[in-house]
Amino acid sequence: MNQDVHRHDWSPLRYQALGGANTHTLQAGDHAPDPGGTPHILANSSIRRSTPRECERLQGMPEDYTLIPWRGKPASECPDGPRYKAIGNSKAVTVVRWIGQRILQQL
Fold this sequence. Notes:
Layout: E1 2-6, E2 12-16, E3 23-24, E4 40-43, E5 46-49, H1 52-58, H2 80-88, H3 93-106
Antiparallel strand pairs: 1-2, 2-3, 4-5
């Protein structure tokens, strides 16, 4: 029988009633106070927001891949918001490539 347990930091834990070990329940999203859920990096003992370029690298995209013309403005004036949105709505290039290769092997 599984039961939910909440620690002081509100992270839910699950445990087996029959002596199983505690494990964290995997949840999507971060639990930071930032409502946008933007990834953060600890630098020099302070937190900073990841740049769109860093997020693109993490997704396996070329640098400035999401730097495109936006609402009639040139690409050089594209704000970060639409770039973060595009990156967040994408799939990791390396994962998609791996899946595609496995599908081709089966054809």
